[in-house]
Amino acid sequence: ARTALGRRNLVFVGLMGAGKSAIGRMVATQLGLPFIDTDHEIERVSRMTITELFAAYGENEFRALETRVIKRLMRGGPRVISTGGGAFINDNSRHHIKSAGLSIWLKADLDVLWERVNKRDHRPLLKTENPKQTLQDLMDRRYPVYAEADLTVQSRDVRKDVIVDEVLEAII
Ligand code: S3P
C-alpha cells in the first residue's frame, strides 16, 4: 500500500511497556516491510544482553552504541523499527531518526505501562527502590521529548490489532 512513509523508515518511540516491539512487528507484517528492534540489534552486535551492557559499561556507553546502530539502520530501509525507550531522548539518536524516519510515539498511561513492565525484570533502569515512581519520573522527563515525534498513537489497554489499525490509519 502507498503510505505517507514513502521510502522512509517507520520508527516507534516511547517508554518501555508502550508496546513498540509488539505493535511494530504487527505493523511491519501489514505493510510487508522488514521489522527490526534496536535493542535486539544492539544485543546481536555486542553479543551481550542490554542488562549486561549497562552493568559492564554504563548507560553512556550504551547510548553511544545505540546511536551507532540507529544511524546505520536509518541509512537503509524502508523498514519498521522499534527503538529502546531512551533512544528518542538522546539528541544524536533523535537526529538520525528524524532525518530518515517517520516517527510514531506510542503513548501510554502509567498504569498501562506498569502493568506491562511489572511482569518482566530485564529493564536495568527500573531496578530501583520504587520502580513505579521511577517510571512516573521517566514519563515526566521524557513525554515532552516524545511529543516531538511526527505522529502520536495512544497505546490503550485494548487488543493489539486495534492499536495496529490506528497506526495504519495514521500513516495511510
Ligand atoms: C531503556 C529502554 C529499554 C532499553 C534500555 C533503556 C530506556 O528498551 O533500551 O533498558 O532508557 O527507556 P524498551 O523501551 O524496549 O524496554
UniProtKB/TrEMBL annotation:
NCBIfam families: PRK13946.1
Subunit: Monomer.
The keyword Transmembrane appears for this protein: no
Function: Catalyzes the specific phosphorylation of the 3-hydroxyl group of shikimic acid using ATP as a cosubstrate.
Necessary cofactors: Mg(2+)
PROSITE patterns: SHIKIMATE_KINASE (PS01128)
PANTHER family: SHIKIMATE KINASE (PTHR21087), SHIKIMATE KINASE 1, CHLOROPLASTIC (PTHR21087:SF16)
Note describing how the cofactor binds: Binds 1 Mg(2+) ion per subunit.
Enzyme Commission (EC) number: 2.7.1.71
Subcellular location: Cytoplasm
UniProt-listed InterPro entries: P-loop_NTPase, Shikimate/glucono_kinase, Shikimate_kinase/TSH1, Shikimate_kinase_CS
Ligand binding (substrate): 39, 63, 85, 142
Gene from which the chain derives: aroK
UniProt entry tagged with the keyword Kinase: yes
Residues engaged in binding ATP: 17-22, 123
Keywords assigned by UniProt, alphabetized: Amino-acid biosynthesis, Aromatic amino acid biosynthesis, ATP-binding, Cytoplasm, Kinase, Magnesium, Metal-binding, Nucleotide-binding, Transferase
Catalytic activity from the UniProt record: shikimate + ATP = 3-phosphoshikimate + ADP + H(+)
GO molecular function terms noted in the UniProt entry: shikimate kinase activity
Protein family (similarity comment): Belongs to the shikimate kinase family.
Protein name as annotated: Shikimate kinase
Binding site for Mg(2+): 21
SUPFAM superfamilies tied to this protein: P-loop containing nucleoside triphosphate hydrolases
Metabolic or biological pathway, per its Swiss-Prot or TrEMBL entry: Metabolic intermediate biosynthesis; chorismate biosynthesis; chorismate from D-erythrose 4-phosphate and phosphoenolpyruvate: step 5/7
